[in-house]
User: Which sequence fits this backbone?
């Protein structure tokens, strides 16, 4: 079985499911596991730490013979990170959060497909103009960084704006119903993040995975505060969606005060993060946490999402009188 | 042709499309037109103005022989409004924004189906306990009042939480792709608001309809300010999504200051509203405005949404290998 879209065919996928390149969470072992299961696994290069990237890219490269890829945070990652990643010959390069133009030619000249993730229709048109082979329309329900528009109306708007460039949906998709819905919206596949955070191969802390399993969709919030305390100067319009904890309760609406208290708060935060204390440290998570109840293998997740989507799609024509 | 779900069958609908009971916009003529076209038309009773309700309910009652209904803002509408509406023998009663229990027995004892709209999973469970026959999961992308959770992850979560009670999806659905996606998410139909605001039979001001046609999804914002200036004390967690205009730009982040300036600002706002000046007055609208490009008849909208959804659903099984 499998689900066929032009995007899935291009990369020989059984199911058009992309592992979101979650920085520091989606390592090479997870990326390879998703690709081996028939999805498309991406290493999450995040802010572009070269040492981490090199080790994880090597794991992905060695871990799979199927197409795989890498993603970075566009506004922060340097050209060295992009060049390093390209040396491992990924099949796709995923740029999100910022202007893709400084890296687009380098990536495409290396024979690598360019996937640009966007949060609104204007950015989608800019990504297309920059040469994106695939555009991801990311809704506000997504975990981690993102912006304000919701996926259900955004995906068809982006699909119309950039046709015939293929579009994928991201945001709040953690099971087969979401993938089937994304395909009905005109997407050729779905990007899945939080669901893979809580899987065996993810580099997430075991306590963070347990928190995702225990959370519901109302337990997440979009905020600047984890960027403020960590010292990342994210540009507008991006904020990050995370699980609520004591830290978000304490600093709610007080980003400015937090910024003035960094001498004290940053060391405290860093100590908490190192200790796995997620009442202070961040667990990025999307609104799809409602639908996450266990910590299975990545392959199990790909199969579950794919088969449930198949089942829903198979019933669809039966709804027509 | 048509789309069949248990909800559609119960009310003999050609397409499982509900007209959102937009207060003051969804009058009796629009409700009847939607029902006559094979959807389910609802009069938008809003805050419960008895004179307006009586006139519009009469128009709906006279305008269609098919099932139709009425909706009110639960926390504000009085028992008199509910009793008045029931005298017109609607087939469905739509309660949104507040505790349905004060009205549930009255509505159900009248032989009228109770539809409760909710914005999170807890409220869905409360609505089920209150006797709701159908539950609407409304996403944050919806126009008008609502809350923070996005539809794509919320709809399946609500469907799981209240099964086997039927669930409908609301928020950002203005065409057939959205309806098809809603059905894949486990909903039995979709509630459509903004798309019907910009139709011929709607009671919206012609300039407001033109603004919806001209807007894109990034032009909307969730805000308290129109409630503050009009003097409606909406309870948490509800805000309203509206088109951005000079008023929203002027008062952004300054709800408290607006509340202190009402002696001057309320008369100014009321004059603007009376004059159809929508740089000051509110146009409630959802993120689906991207996909709205004209002001057709209600019947044309029902047909377009229904047929496009049929087309998408009909192609779905072809995606399976």
Assistant:
């Amino acid at each position: 079985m499998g689900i066929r879209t032009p995007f899935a065919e291009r990369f020989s996928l059984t199911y058009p499911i992309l592992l979101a390149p979650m920085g520091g969470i989606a390592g090479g072992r997870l990326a390879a596991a998703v690709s081996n299961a028939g999805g498309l696994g991406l290493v999450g290069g995040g802010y572009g730490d070269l040492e981490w990237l090199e080790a994880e890219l090597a794991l992905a490269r060695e871990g799979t013979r199927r197409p795989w890829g890498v993603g970075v945070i566009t506004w922060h990652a340097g050209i060295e990170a992009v060049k390093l990643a390209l040396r491992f010959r990924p099949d796709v390069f995923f740029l999100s959060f910022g202007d893709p133009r400084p890296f687009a030619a380098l990536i495409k000249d290396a024979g690598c497909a360019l996937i640009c993730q966007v949060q609104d229709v204007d950015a989608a048109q800019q990504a297309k103009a920059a040469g994106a082979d695939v555009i991801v329309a990311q809704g506000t329900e997504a975990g981690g960084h993102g912006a304000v528009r919701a996926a259900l109306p955004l995906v068809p708007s982006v699909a119309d704006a950039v046709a015939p460039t293929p579009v994928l949906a991201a945001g709040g998709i953690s099971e087969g119903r979401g993938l089937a819905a994304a395909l009905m919206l005109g997407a050729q596949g779905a990007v899945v993040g939080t669901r893979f955070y809580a899987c065996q191969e993810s580099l997430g802390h075991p306590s963070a995975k347990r928190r995702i399993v225990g959370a519901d969709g109302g337990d997440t919030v979009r905020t600047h505060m984890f960027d403020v305390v960590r010292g990342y100067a994210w540009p507008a319009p991006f904020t990050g969606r995370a699980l609520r904890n004591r830290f978000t309760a304490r600093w709610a609406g007080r980003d400015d005060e937090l910024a003035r208290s960094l001498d004290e708060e940053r060391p405290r935060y860093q100590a908490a993060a190192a200790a796995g204390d997620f009442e202070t440290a961040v667990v990025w998570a999307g609104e799809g946490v409602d639908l996450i109840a266990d910590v299975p293998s990545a392959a199990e997740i790909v199969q579950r999402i794919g088969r449930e989507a198949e089942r829903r799609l198979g019933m669809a024509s039966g709804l027509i009188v």
Summary: Chain A has a mean pLDDT of 97. Residues 298-316 of chain A form the longest helix (19 residues). The radius of gyration of chain A is 18 Å. Chain A has 15 helices and eleven strands.
